[in-house]
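Tip: read the tokens left to right.
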């Protein structure tokens, strides 16, 4: 048995040496040809590596644009490029972002309000939308959200200042409260100032 293994190893070794000598011989005859081939293989390897990182993101972006964003018609609901929620939020001085699975009862109710030309005119600014499709668990952990809820968070300088959620509200309640609550989201600063003034007033009385 050992003898057979030894013979097999020697045969493989012999073939490798012969192949190596053949390559060297051809290289000596036409070195430019081999350099061109090496350059071509190197270029292909680089392009494949770039494609492995670049194209999956583009495919995701195209899928979300065609399936989710194409169904949004309100100018008051603006899409955030997929896979860039964190950087996009940090780049804005102040921004309100709606996080939600692009399906479900709460989502459909909210989208109906954005599609209502009368109700949406009451909204005093655009809201940005980031669908929970990819890396959902990571987004839930990062922003403290739940995928079965519609969550709107107001960020100031990239940091959360206020939030509201939509879960099982009735159509009547949601139509009455949703837009006013959205309009009040950025007023967290005013609330903070009022609380600080109250604290200072109380301390001065003491």
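Filled-in amino acids:
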């Amino acid at each position: 048995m050992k003898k057979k293994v030894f013979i097999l190893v020697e045969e493989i070794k012999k073939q490798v040496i012969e192949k190596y000598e053949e390559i060297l011989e051809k290289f000596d005859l036409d070195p430019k040809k081999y350099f061109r081939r090496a350059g071509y293989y190197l270029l292909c390897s680089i392009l494949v590596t770039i494609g492995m990182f670049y194209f999956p993101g583009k495919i995701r972006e195209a899928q979300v644009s065609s399936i989710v964003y194409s169904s949004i018609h309100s100018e008051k609901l603006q899409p955030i490029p997929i896979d860039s929620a964190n950087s996009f939020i940090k780049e804005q001085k102040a921004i309100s972002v709606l996080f939600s699975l692009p399906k479900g009862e709460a989502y459909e109710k909210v989208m109906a309000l954005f599609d209502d030309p009368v109700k949406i005119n009451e909204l005093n600014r655009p809201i940005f939308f980031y669908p929970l499709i990819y890396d959902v668990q990571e987004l839930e952990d990062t922003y403290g959200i739940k995928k079965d809820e519609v969550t709107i968070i107001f960020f100031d300088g990239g940091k959360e200042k206020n939030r509201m959620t939509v879960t099982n509200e009735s159509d009547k309640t949601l139509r009455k409260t949703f837009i006013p609550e959205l309009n009040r989201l950025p007023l967290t600063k005013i609330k903070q100032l009022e609380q600080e003034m109250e604290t200072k007033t109380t301390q001065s009385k003491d």
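The first helix runs from residue 2 to 29. The first strand starts at residue 77 and ends at 79.
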